[in-house]
Amino acid sequence: MVQLKLTDEATNRDDMRDGFCCDRNNPHSCCHREEDSRSHHSNLHKSSDWKLADDPSCNPEHPLKVTFEEITSAAYRIKPGIVNTPCTRSHMSGLTGMDIYLKKDFLQNTGSFKERGARYAMLMLSQERRQKGVIAASLGNHAQAVCYHGHLLKIPVTVVMPIIAPIMKIQKCKEFNANVIMEGKDMAEARKIAIKLAKEKGFTYINGYDHPQIIAGQGTIALEILEQVQDIDAIVVPTGGGGLLAGVAVAVKTLNPEIKIIGVESERCASFTMAMKSERPVSTPIEGTLADGLAVPMVGYNAWETAKSLVDKMVVVKEEWIAVAILRMVELEKCVVEGAGAVGLAAILAGQLDEFKGKRVVLILSGGNIDTTILGRCLERGLAADGRLVKCKVTVSDRPGGISELCKIISSIGVSIKDVIHERAWVTSDVFSVEVKVVCETRDYTHSLELRDLLMNRYKKVKFDNLPENLAVSSTNEN
Ligand SMILES: Cc1ncc(COP(=O)(O)O)c(C=O)c1O
């Protein structure tokens, strides 16, 4: 049933591994029993200073399957503190040929679904554990969720955020009076620091995607979706460490096994797809991605164990489609969604889910926390990927009026110039020419092609960066 789209080999780096340790028969006890778990798993991964056994919520050798009952229990407990977010029909149904519904969980207080699991895990702490406090390592959304619900539940919170975490997410955590430690170059390092601190200070470490209660909490989103939308054919789930995917898959397949569960990752951090390929969690090299919330090098063991047999398909999307999806969300839905939250739409726009044309598909818009500057860049990239922001180099006459004529020609078809740079020193053809680099905004791709043809008919040397060359156009012109 599972379709894989990537063929790259995963690399296996022990130092990047993520792991947990749990009482298999009693998931709710797992975060209260570090000492037992540690000794139980003391033989694991001896060589690494980041010992897997130090995260008490998981045991890679005995991973846990989260059950439907835990998800319903989580739903009941977190209900008063979580927003039942709308799941509404998308304006993009016509555009995509699918009956799309959007579960808008970016409307949670801290802008992501992560509050569900965070609240549940904290509600399940013993009084003693609550007093000592919790610690999490996160690139942002889990950290914000833990900080916010810790604040509401009066539980002291420490979060370790890698230095690459988005500024906006760091700032938000500070606003909830949490102890924010910015350390570690990536999640692996941040987690190592958090686990060490948990040990030293007696905090409870809450893994953001693999703690069984986190997975159960994330699954509650599916219970809401199934109440909000009838006759669903597929649910598309952004996937990082796999906690959301696992929780959703259990809830949905228990209630209606006919509904397809589709996980989506960025091509830059396809760790669940790699796990599917290797039939176990493996460490996967990750690169900078617009979907920063999904940048997890290895899926969680509990998440994997829970989700592996329930996921129908994994899709890996290209970065440019994520940018286009963010743009479409802003333009057509008036929703600001971060890259991680937009991957589902990206997969549809890229034609990777065409088998659902004419079907009813729910996209989980899992988060909306995006820095304004990054949003600006995403929108520009989206416009460029869409062929609506084009860049060209045109060599024109350096006599008076040469550049102004170029600008007039461009504006004659309603194209707007965003930027112009001209240079003389490096033009090799003749001293009476100048090379002009122009960035233009057009209505759509066809409009861009019209611009290209117009310029190629008028000038000899024209080069567009992001449009194909039009060989049919004659270039018998003067410049
Ligand atoms: C906005 C957003 N969407 C999706 C995910 C993926 O969730 P998981 O790590 O449980 O797979 C994350 C994880 O942080 C996220 O922040």
From TrEMBL:
InterPro entries linked to this entry: ACT_ThrD-II-like (IPR044561), Ser/Thr_Dehydratase (IPR050147), TrpB-like_PALP (IPR001926), TrpB-like_PALP_sf (IPR036052)
Keyword line: Lyase, Pyridoxal phosphate
Cofactor(s), names only, from the UniProt record: pyridoxal 5'-phosphate
The UniProt record lists the keyword Lyase: yes
Organism for this UniProt entry: Asbolus verrucosus (Desert ironclad beetle)
Domain of life: Eukaryota
Chain segments carrying region Disordered: 32-56
PANTHER family assigned to the protein according to its UniProt record, in alphabetical order: ACT DOMAIN-CONTAINING PROTEIN, THREONINE DEHYDRATASE, MITOCHONDRIAL-RELATED
Domain Tryptophan synthase beta chain-like PALP: 78-367
BP term (GO), one: isoleucine biosynthetic process
Family that this chain belongs to: Belongs to the serine/threonine dehydratase family.
Record-given protein name: L-serine deaminase
GO function terms (MF aspect): L-serine ammonia-lyase activity; threonine deaminase activity
